[in-house]
Amino acid sequence: MKKNMQGFSLIELMITVAIIAILTAIAVPIYQNYTIKTQATAALAEIAPGKTGYELALANGKTPSLDADNPGYINIKVGTYCSAITLTGGIKCTTKGGAAEFAPKALNLVRSDSGEWKCETDIEEKYRPAGCGAVGGNGGGGNGG
Question: How much is the pLDDT for 128?
Fold first, then answer.
């Protein structure tokens, strides 16, 4: 009696490996871009709540502060994606972690004298959070993202 062999031939396995390699070559860069944009948006989300505290401090005649003991405290802290936060003409985050395209970069919520907020960043355009413009540029206007 003859026994039939079962399984895959070498050429079938090589074709399968080639297909997986092609799909991986396409998917990995797309995933990396998505991850960087997500980190930038998360960094903006870390500082955006500070706009309310900033406005409250100004409305009460206080100087906005990051010091919890100060009456103008705006209640934001350094987080997962911001290595430093400063308050100079708005709220400024220096990004940390992730790829070189993300850190260290500046992500700023800038307040105009009229009370308008805009988001500015030096993060490459394709990674910027929605509503953020280039530093010194037009910005995204309005609510900062």
Answer: 95
- CB atoms under 10 Å from CB of 118, counted, come to 22
Helices and strands in the chain: count of H runs, count of E runs: 2, 5
Strand, helix or coil for residue 23 = helix
Distances (CA, A) of 139 to 49, 51, 89, 95: 18, 16, 14, 18
Query: What local confidence, expressed as pLDDT, does residue 144 receive?
Result: 44
Residue 140 lies in a domain: no
- Can you give the CATH number for the domain in which 42 is found? 3.30.700.10
Query: Is residue 145 in some structural domain?
Result: no
Q: Structurally, how many domains does the chain consist of?
A: 1
Q: Which of 36, 54, 38 is nearest to 109 (CA)?
A: 54
Is 128 inside any structural domain?
yes
Q: What is the pLDDT of residue 85?
A: 96
**Count of CB atoms within 10 A of residue 40's CB?**
26
According to DSSP, the residues that pair with 137 across neighbouring strands are none
pTM for the whole structure: 0.80
